[in-house]
Amino acid sequence: MTEVSESKGREPEKQEKAENDNKDKAVNSSKNENDFKERVNFTKGGIENLKFYPDDPKNHHHKYNWTLKEPSKFYDPCEESRQASLNCILRNQEDRSVCTEYFEAYRECKRDFFRKRKEDRIKGKGGWGFW
């Protein structure tokens, strides 16, 4: 009879431990998402490379996604900046001037992407499509 009562006493401990493990996993997954945002280095390379947007339009995977898309499809390498500007518009529907920094960041991101594309084409680096 004591063995049965001891085993019943241990089950809640195991259950609490499993619940704590699940809570830790949930906290760690949200930490990983936040860690990514904290690792974005907006000042890498000095003042000439200062950027005001979270996207990395010069990353090589954008080149491959650009070429793999269908001709009639839209691909935006600055998706995160675009979404931030749209969210700002939705929050401030009466005053669009509040969102000018978001608009400028999106324009700068697009400008950097197409500048990189043009430089690669001039240097003869392939992978951007037919022209």
TrEMBL record:
Residues 1-41 have a biased composition (Basic and acidic residues). Keywords: Disulfide bond, Mitochondrion. InterPro entries: COX23 (IPR051040), Cys_alpha_HP_mot_SF (IPR009069). Its main location: mitochondrion. Residues 1-42 are annotated as: Disordered. It is found in: Mitochondrion intermembrane space. GO terms for biological process: mitochondrial respiratory chain complex assembly. GO terms for cellular component: mitochondrial intermembrane space. Belongs to the COX23 family. PANTHER family: COILED-COIL-HELIX-COILED-COIL-HELIX DOMAIN-CONTAINING PROTEIN 7. Required for the assembly of cytochrome c oxidase. This is Cytochrome c oxidase-assembly factor COX23, mitochondrial. It comes from Pichia sorbitophila (strain ATCC MYA-4447 / BCRC 22081 / CBS 7064 / NBRC 10061 / NRRL Y-12695) (Hybrid yeast). The gene is Piso0_003350.
